[in-house]
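Our example copied in:
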Amino acid sequence: MHSEKEDLLQYIQPDRIKIGVLGGGQLGRMMIQSAINLNLPVCCLDPDPNAPCKHIATEFAVGNLNDFDTVYAFGQDKDVITIEIENVNVAALKKLQSEGKKVFPQPEVIELIKDKGLQKLFYKEHDIPSPEFFLIDAKEEIAQYAGSFPFFQKMRTGGYDGKGVVKLSDPQNLGMAFDVPSVLETLIDFDKEISVIVARNAGGSLSCFPAVECAFNPEANLVEFLFSPATIDAGIEKQAIDIAKTIAEKLGIVGILAVEMFVTKSGQVLVNEIAPRPHNSGHHTIEGNITSQFEQHIRAILDLPLGDTAIVRPAVMINLLGEKGYEGAARYTGLSEALEQSGVYVHLYGKAITKPFRKMGHITVTDKELSKATEKARALKETVKIIS
């Protein structure tokens, strides 16, 4: 007798199931690469006619992700609709869901997470540890919190990849502050920044990837290196994984959830932000773990058994960012030197145009020892460049 889970596998045929992805960037591209292994058609909608998914999606449509009619029309012939970016029209997704379409993550989850203020209120309501914060509607309100400086000011909506975030150190000098609804988050004297990716399928099964450690580019506020596994003790990792699972369960999310956290110098784990989709802090899983985050997301949204997340080998990921001072048709230097080395995996996202700090690809380095992978990765960071 076959189980319900096993029976679902018979529907993985091009004429039986169709996945629609809102967004056609690099996350969608890597999702498609995993979907191909399961013979699944993936269709993408993106405003950029030359988005990374254009040439590998089963169908590719150009359109505004925030336009109700465009998103609603795109979802009409899809069996499952998912996202690779939060900035989408939630009202259209709610209507599709009400008409019987499977939308994962659920529209109400996207709606909460895309607003950093609602995120913070969610943590407070559910006693999830997070830095102290204040919500403001306009720049003029910042002065009333002068006694709690310094802050990171984060736009409630619209920020991504380090954009929409600014450090405010002096209440008398707010020239860099945003004049929009924002979160003021107190600065944390942290020891490390880590991330845990958790998956939850429609049946409620949960699975976490081991914690990873993130090192940021201070100028662009983007991840520069990612180290797997994180160099933290077992107790801290348990705290982090328990927090990630709690958030996933309280949200009731179906799909992948990335939970970015601070580890304080006293050993406390605090949630920074969450993302309801595959995430930059999980790219290493393609080569470094038994199941990649992209395959895990597909498994989750189709309510298939979740995959084994164990580490195969220690891994270091390097984000390949466009060099400062260059904008135009992308040229890559140092790739031959990278590819001649064992355990080095290059992923280029197919973006024709480079600009300073634009994510153009990543490299994952694996080795028997994390220290050796780290040494090789730091050398590659100086070797591989994207210029114009």
Remarks:
- The chain has a mean pLDDT of 94.
- The longest strand covers residues 190-200.
